[in-house]
Each structure stands twice: as C-alpha cells, then as structure tokens.
Amino acid sequence: MKVIRDSIHKDIYLEDYELEVIDSSEIQRLRNIKQTGLTYLVYPSANHTRFEHSLGTMFISSKIAEKINADKKLARISALLHDIGHPPFSHTLEIFGYDHEYFGKRKIKKMDLVNFSSSEVIKTLNKKNLEGKIISGDVDADRMDYLLRDSYHTGTAYGMIDLPRILRGLTTFKSFNKVKIGVLKKGIQAIESLLVARHQMYSAVYMHPTVRIADTMMKRAVMKEILEKNLNVEDLSLMDDISLVSFLRMSENYLMEKIDRRDLYKNLITYGYSDLTPVERWIFANLDENQVLQLEEKFYNHFGCDVFLDICSIPKMEEHNVYIVSKEEIRRLDEVSPIARSLKMAEIQLWNIALYAPRENIKHLKENDDVKKKIHKILKEIDFEIKSKLVDILREYKSIIGKGKFLEIARERGISPKEFYEELHKLIFCGLIKERFNGRKYIYSLSNSINSHYL
C-alpha cells in the first residue's frame, strides 16, 4: 500500500486502484481549488485545497464504515470523488445554477474506476445507500473533515472536534425498513461538541464579514464575464483557481484588480435576522440571481457606484436531525439536548443580508441619511408573491400533527419528499410555519405573520 502524509490524519494508506483514481485529471484539478474560497484574504494560512479535503473525507469514511459494517471500499472511493465537480474557489462560485454535485456525477460517468461502476458511486453520492449517508448525512465524514481541516489551516481552535469519541458513538438502526446512522446515548456530548464547533466556525470563519465581501466581489466578477458571453457557466467545471484568476486578469476585470490589491468593498448596511419580518426573510431567501442583479442596477442608477446585495444561504443544520439511540427509544437530538436547541436558534440568528459599496464611496454613502431611506424604499418595492403548496395545505388543515402525516398529505398534492423537506425547512427558518414538539410528535401550523401578507 502507498501512504500519503496528511496534516490532520497523519498517515493515509491507499490501495493501488485508489492511487490510480487520485492521479486522474479530475482529482488532480482539486489541488488548485482552495477549500474555503477567498478566506485566505482574512486568514492568510487558509490555502488548503479540495484535494486534501477529499483525502481526509475518504479517511474518515473508512473509519465510519468499519464501525457500522458498511462497504468500506465503496465508501472510500465515493468519498474521494465527492467534490470533483467543484468550481474554482469552491462554494463561492456556485452561481447561475451551477451545482457541483451535478457536474461531479457527470464527470464520474466518464471515468474508469477499475473496481467499481460509475453507477455504484453515483448511487452512493445520491445517498441511496448506507455508504452515501456516511459521506453526506446528519453526522458525516465530509463535515467532520472540513471542521478539523479548516480550523487547523485558519489557525483557529473552534473546529477541533473529538473525532475518536464521535466514531465510538456511531451506530445503526432501522426505520421503515431503511438502515440509518445514529448515535448512542453515551455519544451525545461528542455530537454536541460538533454542533458547537460548527457554529463557531460559521460565526468566526465562514461568515466572517470580510470573507463574505471578498466572495461577493469574486462572484460579481465572474457573473460579469458570463453575462458578457466571455465565459460559460459550464467552463467553471474545468477551470481551477489559477486558470480563472488568469482569465479575469487577462480580461482586465476591475473587480479582480481590486481583489488582487485587497482593495475590498466595505459594509454599507446589514439587516439581521431579527430586523426582518418572516415575510421579508422569505422574499430575500427566494430571490434569484437575476433579481438580485436587477436590484443592484437600481442601486447603481441611484448612487452612481456599485452597491452589491449579499444574501446568506439558509443554514441546513443537518446535525440537528441526528437520532440518539438507546435501549428504550430513538429520539432526535433536538428533543433530548437543550444545548442543541439553543444552538439551533443561535445558528438562525447568524443569518443576515448585507449591502457593500466601494471603499472610496462608503463614507459619503454612510453619512447621507437619504441613502438608507432610498435603499429601504427600493427593497420594499420588490414585487414578490409568497407561493407555497405547504402553506396552502396548512391554510386548509389549520394544524397538522406529525411530520410523517404532513409529508403524506404533501405527496398526495404532487410534492416529492425532497421538495417537502427543503421547503418546510425554509418556511420554518423564515418563521412562516411554526414547528412545536409536544413530547411525542411535531405539530405544524402557520404563524400569525403570514395571514396578512399571503397572496
């Protein structure tokens, strides 16, 4: 066996067929894609890559597979390939519908994986088997590696989770004839520490205000080239950080020039979660990129300079869905852990929308009282209807007891399980649907704020 020395996991051993996959152009491209986008502009040592993370995810997937008796080889090779569809600067450039999972699977179909068919790996990455849930699930190898790795390379201590203890606490259980991954009751503290680590890393690193500004500038730089037909969205699946930066420099893109000089925009206004009504949160969470660009054009026409609108992604918070397994019962982590419940609210409160303007214009804009009024007026004029089949169902039923019952009704209305869970999460996050736990089941009802706004 070959061995690779890793900064986090030390010796990672590889079979010959795994080394062949690693030496493919698809994996080697990841050597030049930064794991955390433009975070290095704030944390200078954050130059680690998707390549290292893929190896680390493979290593942890192997350990989990051993613990729960899953197919170790399938988990390893799938984990190794799980990020090959990423664009340059990772999640920063998932723009205009770019989906790294889609492009990753498209690449896998063309690869020769020796011991596995592409369909086996794609099935795994689609989470259609136990091995898929090891890589990406409620408590998974992907998340555990990036917390440890990002913490180490940014020089922060927030993401230092107790990996051996988490692994010892993992188990499996059956639910509706499906095998799922859970955590033994004795492992609650280790999972709580993972939640704390994730929250602190998001607060201090991933959502650092300067990082978000730099990411937004890079997004707009690339979007400009795509809109001017100098670049196709699909090109991003073949480029790495080096080739993209070179392209932007050759194009004399003014935003790339500013990023090169670290002449970053400054924060003009931030609207926190509590500053917005549930309906306003829903509106901003559902704006597409073309609508955001239209708003930014209005800002430019009013103020004569760039004013970029940055809307946080809604946090998925999959860890809160972890099931705690004991001899007596199986319950969701949120139901048994006060720490998990409080962290959920803290995570929600991190969400915000922000507006950025060039450094040279920021003082004038901030000192002009009319600017905030004009921005507020433009944002209030967004023409948007709240359209949701789940809201329609709750308007009819008033309240529904049990998530399973809610899903059953939704499926009768033609809503797929994936659509149901995604939309329900977003509606609860925005505060349009209330979710209460009565000790046995979750109860769903509409919030009072929606009745006067729903169309």
From TrEMBL:
Residues 50-147 form the HD domain. It holds the Pfam family HD. InterPro entries: dGTPase-like, HD/PDEase_dom, HD_assoc_2, HD_domain, HDIG_dom. GO terms for molecular function: dGTPase activity. Coiled coil: none annotated. It comes from the Archaea. GO terms for biological process: dGTP catabolic process. PROSITE patterns: HD. This is Metal dependent phosphohydrolase.
